[in-house]
Amino acid sequence: MFPFDNFDLEPAKARPSAFEPHVFFWKPWRGEGQIRNAFGKVLRRYTVSGGGQADEARARMTQTVVFEDGETVQKAWEILSRDPGRYVARDVDNGIVAEGGQVGRSFVWSFASDQTVGKGRTMPFKTTVTYTLIDRSTAEGVAVNRLWGWLPVSRLTTLYRHQV
């Protein structure tokens, strides 16, 4: 497994406006978003909900995405802390590994995966997800999928809110 240090489940006191995934996503949350192609055309809209469990060493986040056509996708990520501000996450279902860390006030995850496109062809993609805290209970997530790691093909934009 991955090396990890302890999670601090309280937001960083020195940077209260920085997004920290283990602090934000362990509380129940809901969101809505859309997927756009490289030209800005909306391809799909969705709602998403989830939450997590955390202990001193690791966190597990689960999420359920429901697309407007009724398709439902469930994901679970195990998140480990490498050192303060650096994390590794593993998709529990398919083993994709993401690495992430603070970049200014935002938090950025990055991972590579093979995705099926067109008539069943598998192509290499790199995904970068940037989360920015808007206020203590609201965050924006922007995921950019790039073919071959450089050609942007889609953008997912999601607004997350803690449930009351």
CATH topology: Lipocalin
* Strand proportion: over 45%
| CATH C-level name | Mainly Beta
In CATH terms, what is the architecture?
Answer: Beta Barrel
Q: What is the subunit organization of this protein?
A: single chain
Q: What order do the strands of the largest sheet run in, or round the barrel if closed?
A: 1-2-3-4-5-6-7-8-9-10
Number of domains: 1
End-to-end Cα distance, whole Å, is: 35 Å
Class derived from helix and strand content: mainly beta
Rg value: 16 Å
Q: Please report the number of helical segments.
A: 1
3D shape: globular
Unreliable stretches (pLDDT < 50, length at least 5) are 1-16
Helical amount among residues, as a percent range? under 10%
Give a count of the beta strands, DSSP E runs of length 2 or more.
10
Spell out the helices and strands N to C. HEEEEEEEEEE
Largest sheet: 10 strands, antiparallel, barrel
